Amino acid sequence: MIRQARGASVFALCLTACMTSSPRVGQTSPDATSLAGLPGLIRIDVRDPTMEEMPPPTYVFSLRSGRLVSGGDSGPCQFSLDEPTLPPAGEMQYQYPYAVNSERSLLAVSAKPARSSSLVSNDVAVFSFPEGTQRAFIHRPESAFVERIAWSPDSRYLALLTTQEHWGVSPLELLSGVAGHPVPHNSYRIEVYSRSGELVGATPFITGFVATSARLCWR
Questions:
Q1: What is the number of structural domains in the chain?
Q2: Which range of residues forms the domain containing residue 161?
Q3: How far apart are CA 150 and CA 176, in angstroms?
Q4: Would you say residue 45 lies in a domain?
Q5: Rounded Cα distance, 65 and 59, in Å
Q6: pTM, two decimal places
Q7: How many CB atoms lie within 10 A of CB 48?
Q8: Highest mean pLDDT: which of 56-60, 79-83, 91-95, 154-158?
Q9: In angstroms, rounded to a whole number, what is the distance separating the alpha carbons of residues 69 and 43?
């Protein structure tokens, strides 16, 4: 039996980044206009693991009329601590991140080929539960991996926070890389799909984050 995540009423994504980050929202893509009709608000929580002892600055971005803009929401995201039982591996292997809808009837989970040695996943599978019947499979490009997953409150849509990562190339970053500690630079964007797996739209990438991780919620 799978324990469920609690649903919410606003679509949010909250970002907290390290002080050396300089977040920038890219130009709006044609896909973003199809997000204008979605209810709620996107907020972003990007966290710098190297600054746990001091409150890092918080960068908030909101999806309004299909555009991702800075600011617009000050309420905290609520994150479920549910740990559902994942489907058994076969040709595909299923792993975190995952999300359960508010009706406790659907599980969305990241997926990768069982033979893959990668630590991250690019695809997402949707299962009914507790039956475990696959309902949809989202095959995505390998240019960005799935960082977080969230359901819309009405379970009609699925949001993916996807990440592109590359190593820093400044003189200090190259020196750190030679010492065995390369510095990752992260770019984030949100992709929204229907529950049956069709792409609804995507925001532009938010770039300029250094050594961060992010969380996603839709409330």
A1: 1
A2: 11-74+88-218
A3: 35
A4: yes
A5: 20
A6: 0.78
A7: 20
A8: 91-95
A9: 10
